[in-house]
Write a sequence for this structure.
């Protein structure tokens, strides 16, 4: 099915929530976190070995403990028509990951060298989006949809 740009653009605005995250990624397992998947080898060196110390299970994981409103971003989005030229044609607009990342950089919330490959963005762009670190899944931000305005 054909998708085409309609030529219309929207400004989509999100509230940004910064997160207080509990937990740790696989690179961070250590006795300091009381990880059951960490033990010591024959030399007394601490090693991370879920198979040997915890029946193959690593205790990694993240949990959002608290969040606070830490900004607002605006993303310019092209409207698209889906199933163009058919009776099922409909229009919609949802931001590209690249543009969301750039807006977070512009707002000073992400470092300038971050790209959309470094993050994982999931959710409904007209409700909530979760922005996670692509390398270990650590939650970075929650984006809450506020409004979408057609650029005249
Ligand atoms: Zn751990
Ligand atoms: Zn582990």
């Amino acid at each position: 099915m054909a998708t085409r740009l309609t030529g219309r653009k929207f400004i989509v605005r999100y509230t940004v929530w910064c997160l207080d995250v509990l937990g740790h990624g696989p690179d961070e397992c250590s006795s300091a976190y009381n990880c059951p998947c960490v033990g010591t080898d024959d030399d007394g060196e601490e090693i991370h070995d879920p198979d040997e110390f915890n029946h193959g299970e690593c205790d990694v994981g993240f949990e959002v403990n608290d969040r606070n409103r830490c900004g607002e971003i605006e993303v310019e989005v092209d409207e698209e028509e889906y199933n163009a030229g058919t009776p099922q044609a409909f229009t919609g607009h949802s931001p590209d990951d690249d543009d969301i990342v750039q807006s977070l950089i512009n707002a000073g919330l992400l470092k300038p060298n971050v790209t959309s490959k470094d993050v994982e963005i999931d959710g409904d762009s007209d409700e909530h989006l979760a922005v996670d670190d692509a390398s270990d899944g650590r939650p970075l931000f929650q984006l809450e949809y506020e409004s979408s305005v057609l650029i005249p």
Remarks:
- Residues 1-21+64-152 form one domain.
- The first helix runs from residue 50 to 53.
- The CA atoms of residues 11 and 76 lie 5 Å apart.
